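Per reviewer request, we include the raw input and output of the structure prediction for the construct analysed in the revised manuscript.
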Amino acid sequence: MSALPSPSSSPTPSAAGRYRAFLFDMDGTVINSIAAAERIWGTWAQRQGLDVAAFLPTIHGARSVDTIAKLRLPGIDAQRESQGITDAEIIDVEGIIEIAGALRFLTSLPPAQWAIVTSAPRALATARLKAAGMPIPAIMVTAEDVKAGKPKPDCYLLAAEKLGVAPVDCLVFEDASVGIEAGEAAGAKVIVVTATHAHPLATRHPAIASYEGIVATVDGDGFIVLAETAAAPATR
């Protein structure tokens, strides 16, 4: 993906507008699971003799099997290792919490007009959402549902199809570069959630620090109307 302009190079864009559906990544977007994920992945990386500090930033946003396969470690079966990590992550959900305002925002949406689109397997996604006290959506696209994970657009295209809407009429909520790229490739508009970012992410897309400064209503034509509130926190 080509380099994106830094946040300070242009006026802050806005995602306010009318959409047929909202598509949400999960980890880092509606819930914060970083501590739990890094506990499991850190232990695994240490066993493999990897530089843990350098490796951990690479795990976010992509399917675990793709993350492991990309390492090309000799004698390592990516599918088997991925399943072992997933099993451990399902058990360890300590400290998983909602991104501020996410529960209020999700429950304000029509159930048939939003979906979770995650690189996590379905069992793990369900466990983490429940641990954070979040609703389980009617439509959820997970790692098992697509042959190619993010940054390929397959997951977002499938979610739009399941909701019966065109991708161009969707707003994708993402936090990771691979997910942002997937949303772009699907033809959707993208908004970046920066709640878990340790460092600013250079992006041309609008960004929010949490859901506390945005509201969604449904207009007479059935579109979801996204608007900022007066108290919307500036992220850049």
